[in-house]
Amino acid sequence: MTAFGNTKVKSLSDLEFSWNNPMHLAVSTANNGTSAAVTVWDMRFSRTPYHEYSTGTSGVNCLSWNRSGQLLASHTDGTISCCDVYSKEGLTRAWHGDLGVTWTHSENAFATLSSKYGVRLHEMSDQRIYP
């Protein structure tokens, strides 16, 4: 068994392995009154994160990683964010719902799940999200 980082972790909410690098694991935190984050770990170097980005005060309830290295995060406030992990750039943030998100087999389309709107398909083009 391998433990990553600090043993006094925040409330964790989801994890997702990279399609590009099977040694990379993204872990998200739930909202526990502090700033939520998504942390990417390289399992060969478990003491220091490969990359971490703050998601603001809203917790993350679901992660989805596509083959291009883009990581979607579904937030408890009804937004989604997308980060290109390997270029370490935040791409976009948009409203969608509150339950989950997953990439389709296409590199630029994904589905969201909302308690209010059900399942919706979205397309990402030019770093923007379209319903």
Automatic annotation (TrEMBL):
It comes from the Eukaryota. InterPro entries: Apc4-like_WD40_dom, WD40/YVTN_repeat-like_dom_sf. Residues 41-91 form the Anaphase-promoting complex subunit 4-like WD40 domain. SUPFAM superfamilies: Nucleoporin domain. This is Anaphase-promoting complex subunit 4-like WD40 domain-containing protein. Coiled coil: none annotated. Pfam families: ANAPC4_WD40.
